[in-house]
Amino acid sequence: MPRLALYALLVCLLAVAAAVVSFVQGSWLGIVWILLAGVASNMAWYYVRRARTGRRTSSVTG
Length: 62
Hints:
This protein is mostly helical. It contains 2 helices and no strands. The protein has helices spanning 3-24, 30-61.
């Protein structure tokens, strides 16, 4: 797994944890954390797919 995908996955997990803590404390700020988790998970999938297609392209041409 690419390094940027791991970082994005870590940010996603931390944002979900922050959202849970925020909602448990009764704050609506957790909605922002959920949105950040969504963006981070999309970034993680993007970097994983980009690395996967890069490997396929290099194996076909190489």
